[in-house]
Amino acid sequence: MFGFYQSAGLAVLNALARLGHYQYQEIHFGSATTQRIDWYQVDEKAPTVIFYYGGNWRSYRKEDYRFVADTLCSMGVNVAIPDFFKYPEHRFSAFLDSVVSATNYLMDQVCPEGPVIMMGHSSGAQMAALVTLNAALLDTPERITAMVGLSGPYDFYPFTDEDHWDLFGPEDHYWLSQPVNFVRADAPELYLLHGKHDTRVRRGHSKSLMEKQVAAGGRARREVYEGMGHADAVVSFSRIHRRNSPLVRDIQSFISAAI
Q: Is the bond preceding 153 in cis, omega lying within 30 degrees of 0?
């Protein structure tokens, strides 16, 4: 659950985001409460960014990230934010399956044409990287043009958080949680962004994935931002911060080049 001040802050950011020029709808693609997608459309012919939110694989909701969609829509792209299963009710294989199911539905039914860019923050960046790099997960992985990762954990085995041994279990599935295990020469380009002062997910994660992807013959770039912590990377998308954010400017330039 959110603390009072955190909830109030998100409420302000998302209230301002309602001023954006886009059409919004919630898409239901199954009976489960998690089979819901927030869809923000600027133009049916525009490219699409699929954004996976963070929260240590156990918290937050798609509704909490309208402010991210608002800023991305201002770049001329449609935005989808799916919900997914979470720990401790489910283990990682189940909530990765729920992410894959939502992504396949989006690319088949909602945006069946045009470039698709995967994007995520924190644990959402880990899932975005897995969906992008592990070509066996999606029905049409060739639709993905690029992946943008914010403050993501990509190379964190052996686990340092005690409950991760359970979260990512059983033991023979541990390797499936690590994006660095799926680097490949023909993968879409990775753009990995990290705050220099991120103490929750150290910036060495993005460095490791970038180096291993490049060593495999693939494309990857990395940016590190002075004075930025873990949450700052996503808060930069708010209307209050985005105009002066080098991270948002860099993402806009990357997306423009990728599409």
A: no
84 Cβ neighbours under 8 A, 6+ residues apart: 34, 52, 95, 98, 99, 102, 127
> What is the distance between the terminal CA atoms of the chain, rounded to a whole angstrom?
37
Torsions phi, psi for 193 (to 5 deg): -120, 140
CATH superfamily, with its number, for domain 4-258: Alpha/Beta hydrolase fold, catalytic domain (3.40.50.1820)
User: What confidence category does residue 32 fall into, taking pLDDT thresholds of 50, 70 and 90?
Assistant: confident
Rounded to an integer, the average pLDDT of 156-179 is: 96
How many C-beta atoms lie closer than 10 Å to residue 215's C-beta? 11
Extents of the domains making up the chain: 4-258
Query: Which one has a higher pLDDT value, 240 or 206?
Result: 206
> How many Å is the Cα radius of gyration of the chain?
17
Nearest to 65 by CA among 195, 208, 245, 236: 236
- Give 37's contacts (C-beta < 8 A, 6+ positions apart): 26, 27, 29, 62, 80, 81, 82, 83, 102, 105, 106, 110
Mean pLDDT over 30-57 rounds to 93
Strand partners, 81: 38
| Residue 113 CB neighbour total at 10 angstroms | 11
User: How large is the average pLDDT for residues 28-38?
Assistant: 89
On the question of pLDDT at 87 being above 80, the answer is yes
Hey, what amino acid is at 54?
G
- For residue 4, what pLDDT is reported? 36
Q: If you average pLDDT over residues 51-71, what whole number do you get?
A: 94
Task: Look at residues 157, 182, 193, 168 and name the one whose alpha carbon lies nearest to residue 56.
Answer: 168
Give the relative orientation of helices 123-133 and 92-105 as an angle to the nearest 10 degrees.
60
